Amino acid sequence: MAKPVLTISSKNYGAWALRGWLMCRLAGLDFSEKIIPPDDPAMKAEMLLLSSSMLVPSLQHGNVKVWDTLAIGEYLNEIKPKGGLLPADIQARAHCRAICGEMHSGFASMRGALPMNIKARFRGFKIWSRAQADIDRIVAIWRECLKAYGGPFLFGKQPGMADAMYAPVVTRFLSYDVPLDSVCAAYCKRVMDLPAMQEWVAAAKEEPEEIDELDAEF
């Protein structure tokens, strides 16, 4: 079977691309990347939140093609069960799916007000009330999971699907100088310290500045 191929977008701006890519890394999948150019319509759809059903990222694995980040995560959990993307316990697994689904379908105000931009740093950024409500809900999820499963990641000792789903939020909180309590700040540091995240961030910083409208869209 040919090596799996993950199609992704910008590493600086691509929140969904990061989620899919990080899941593949955490699952232990040996894959190659195909990066679509900035003027590709699929790239624009992901970057500018123009579509609720995006085809980036997508994973080609033999005859199987799967898109949508949640579907990619579920597929990876089936083919790489030892990767531990989902918890072994049925209750924890249900909880994990619920918070992943919440990230997948919710928090539109936070996404719109704080678009992912790894290179940027906005000190003292003013957050409007609707975005703050989303942020409050996210940190409540983090606190609940870290307390229930003992950390250091959302569902225990190793990072999994939930951490991948919330990893772009971590980068947003750093980019936009979002105030966090010590528990959530420590969690953000643990996510950013993951070797896979460091690899992604390093690549994002090397990306050319080609998507100018992103900073003006929101």
UniProtKB/TrEMBL annotation:
SUPFAM superfamilies linked to this entry: GST C-terminal domain-like, Thioredoxin-like
Signal peptide (residue range): none
Record-linked CDD domains: GST_C_3
Top-rank taxon: Bacteria
Pfam (any one): GST_N_2
Limits of the GST N-terminal domain: 4-84
Matches recorded under PROSITE patterns: GST_NTER (PS50404)
PANTHER family: MALEYLACETOACETATE ISOMERASE
Protein name as it appears in the record: Glutathione S-transferase
Organism: Variovorax beijingensis
